From TrEMBL:
<dbReference type="GO" id="GO:0032259">
    <property type="term" value="P:methylation"/>
</dbReference>
<protein>
    <submittedName>
        <fullName>Dimethylmenaquinone methyltransferase</fullName>
    </submittedName>
</protein>
<dbReference type="InterPro" id="IPR038763">
    <property type="entry name" value="DHH_sf"/>
</dbReference>
<dbReference type="GO" id="GO:0008168">
    <property type="term" value="F:methyltransferase activity"/>
</dbReference>
<keyword id="KW-0489">Methyltransferase</keyword>
<keyword id="KW-0808">Transferase</keyword>
Amino acid sequence: MKITQLTHHDLDGYGASTVVGTYADVHRVVHVARYADVGPVVERELGRLRRAEQPEMLVMTDLGLEPVAVTFLKSFAAMNAKRGGELGHRLLVLDHHISSVDQLVAQGVRPASASGDDRPGLNRFSFDDPAIVVMVDETRCATRLAYDHRELYATHAPDAEMEAGIAALVAAVDAVDLWRKEHPIFRQALVLDEVFWDNVSGFIPAAHPQHDAFISRLLLGMAVRLGKGDVPATIEREVGAIRAHIIDTMLAGERDDDRDMTTRMRLAPLLARSPDLFQRIDGGAKVSFGLDAGTFQRVSDVIMASGDAALVINVQRSGSMAFRSNNETALATARKFSGGGHKDASGGRLPSGGATSLADAVAQIASVLNPPKPDLSKSPFAALQGFKA
């Protein structure tokens, strides 16, 4: 059964995806940066699952259930009822925000009967469908919930070494995410949070297929050292070596890989040819969405040097735009977006004020660079065409 995971864009969200990905083959992971974005994300998933020919499993971790998310859960149950038992999808929701309980109750979702292994703080909710499991437990982070309830999705077991790494990761994330300062591992575990934020966006962007594997391996590499008692300073100094080992494995066999270069320089060719990160628009320019500034600079250089495109544009969620070229078109294009700068390095802004995805950014840019021609047939003066006084 194909598994898709929706999870938060923070240490706990990635910890949860690391745990799930260790015990099951996850087809796709979607990281949600803001709780306000949960609604649009689950609506897209609902539409996709309605069209799916085969049953799938959707796992939601560390996503606070606002009203629109609860509505999605009810719509999911209604969809499953229409699809029938054999074609019905599975849904697993593991959350630890107590406000989610309030939202579920407010929309009339009934608490489910407790099972023998329930503990204080765990709230189960019923949707009259055994394929739907919704649990909210404020006493455990999402990473620990995913670990403690792995029997609900697991398809295989890791080896002993990986199991030990996962156990250390779970303990560390649980202490940091729930701010358990009294826990012996809390002080040491803070290094995971710092290194996570230092690496999550600056090397392999979230839209790239290798992103989750990169972050998960980095977290596990640090967790293993935590489990052995290494202090934060030692782990921080070793992060470069851990990351280099991951990249060595990832780029094994790449003909253009140069191990004498920095990590960003080594990754740039891999990222430059990714259709998940770049989309071409009319005129030959390539557009990316939400790339870290340093990553965009390295990758755009590779794209232009290869002759793939002479103009590369990066759009941030806030609507800010960066233009890079090697034929002095960056400034001319930026001016169409109320921008300015150098001939080959400029900035601007989307006219709408923001973008939600690469597809949205491409559509907005295209509407400015290639505005639709007016349909004169709908003009009130169309009837006068050909009239002679």
